[in-house]
Amino acid sequence: MVKFVSKISLVVFIAIFSGCSTKDISQSKPFKTTIIHINDHHSHIDSEKIALTIDNEAIEADIGGFARVVTRINQLQKTKTNSITLHAGDALQGTMYYTVFKGEVDAKLMNLVKWDAFELGNHEFDDGDEELNKFLKELNTTILASNVIANKNSPLYDRVKPYKIIEREDQKIAIIGVDVAFKTKYSSRPSKNLEFLDEIESVNKYVKELKSQGINKVILLSHFGLENDLKLASQIEGVDIIIGGDSHSLMGDYDMIGLKSVAKDYPIITKSKDGKRVCIVQAWEYSHAVGALNVKFDEFGDVKECSGYASLLFDLNTKNKKLLNAVRLYPQLDIVKEDEKALEIIKSYKSQLDKKQKEIVGFNKKYIGHNRIPFDKSDGVSSLEYGSEIAPLIAKAFYLKSKTASFAIQNAGGVRSGLNSGNITIEDVYKLLPFSNTLIEFKMSGKDVKELLEDAFSSTFDKSSSGAFAYGYGIRYDVDSKQSKGNRVSNIEVLNKTTNKFEPIDFDKQYIVVTNSYIADGKDGYEKFATIKDKTDTYYDYAMSFVDLVKTQPNIAPVEKVYHPIKSFK
Question: Does domain 360-569 have CATH number 3.90.780.10?
Fold first, then answer.
């Protein structure tokens, strides 16, 4: 008995005089973990069609869906050692599931997974503090964001934590959260009761706090974007792993199915400020993939090795032989069965969604026509010289939905018909605007705006693409189709929001443009859009912006002539 007490006393003595507590002894052992992660699922609940190219053959496959995400994560949690499961933000916004049910469906499905933490993304704030709080109250996990500070007047007060400490095999691992500050504050809708602090300063502060507690393994759960994560890693000490989101980055090699990733490496391995290894990963977007990062820490808490891949989740019932063969050859491609509990939840909401689409959202007294090009007589437009009556109205919906836009642009081909008189349902709007587009915002100089319009009208008149014809709201111009490219657009004016009067465009001034995601990528001849690198995807469904407009205007009407973008047409 005496000998036994002496051994315990000796351990305590060594611990005290080595400057650590007995609890910290376990921190000085090698440690292995697998970090399971997703990001930016954006209410993409159902599986979706994706175009692939295998052995030079174009094929279509069903990918993802949250029921497959649940299956894959549960499989990994059962088979991986000391697993840690994380969501790097932007669970919300992007499909009808969110538009109709807000975060209700996402919360129920996410609760089928045992998460260690969820990081707030910028789009979690799209409908304000109260709506976000409803979603977070339903989640069975810890909510992180070290740089988001809520005061006592916000319902989010004390709900969001800067970090979480978890234990695996008696080892403590810290998870710090960080949200992209500027974009959240200015492109989303947080209240004035929230403060968004500098990302790097906030992370650095809590890394030091955790170090003082003897914790030497730190994961950063980041909704900051891949480029920013790389910068952050090089500017601070003490972060070992970055599980990222926001930039929707596909990482790894997927050339075998014709998908181009932003980085061939999963993970990207870089160096911290003090020269130590930092491993950075993301798992693409839209419930298409689940990442699994295997990490080995040495006895000092530094990363010794990290490896893994993001699995793309394909339909169990696929019959395409080339895809099946690729799945057999490449571990980053996976055939996954949908989780039954998840499917039950989705089914219950799908039936409600079908009913919701029949909901009447407004009334139209008189048919609003859609001629793609002025003087085209294919549709019942009352003022033929102005072309479409409905396209500028849709652009107005974009303009009003944006908090900062100087004007909006909409291509004629993005609108599929006119709008019939009578009651307007959500289903009617989706027939009018049937594509999977979201609203995109970015800055352009006045000079670039002029070039953009010239590109669009060149596509219309030089390449016979009527769908490229440019309409807008908050902007107007004269069009002469008989001139050559570069000379068709003149007398461009932009609406001054303060005076509500049009002013000549300033070629040297920067304007904020809002448009649909299709032409924002340079499609339909909008080549200038493709050259803009810094774009903000609001992930707001472009059709729902029109629904919102209709709801605020019980008797919908075309844009008044004074606000119509086509001042004159030859």
Answer: yes
